[in-house]
Amino acid sequence: MSSDRIEKQIELKAPVSRVWRALTDYQEFGEWFRVKLDGPFEPGKVSTGHITYPGYEHVQWNSVVQKIEPERLFSFTWRPYAIDPSVDYSAETPTLVEFTLEPAPNGALLRLTESGFNNVPSSRREEAFRMNDGGWTEQMKNIEQHIAQTPLLV
């Protein structure tokens, strides 16, 4: 693993279609990710909202949806660990977050990759990588718990 890329994976005990809904339905995504999004995900469109995770409620969600390939790939770009409301991060090159899904023996294999940390300004690169690495570990647990608690959510 390089310092330019975070990779996580988890096998979820649910069909690919169930995990897909948890990833791409903006309201359901918000439940497990702890973000209140303003509207649905649409390729090429900006997704906005605010984080609801305790201690981070001041953080605005701002991403650009890149791809939605049903039940296979959902990706967006964002600026990692952009949490200081007094800093303008808009000139920074965003990282790419990709969720990929495939069938697995007991359900679905979810892979997460966030790449492009080498483009984050050096003054905050190490902290952004460290915080997002830990954050994605928690988010994988969050989606697993969410799906286990709401297996039949439609």
TrEMBL record:
Q: Where is the Activator of Hsp90 ATPase homologue 1/2-like C-terminal domain?
A: 13-147
Signal peptide bounds: none
Cross-referenced InterPro entries: ASHA1/2-like_C, START-like_dom_sf
The record's family statement is: Belongs to the AHA1 family.
Stated name of the protein: Activator of Hsp90 ATPase homologue 1/2-like C-terminal domain-containing protein
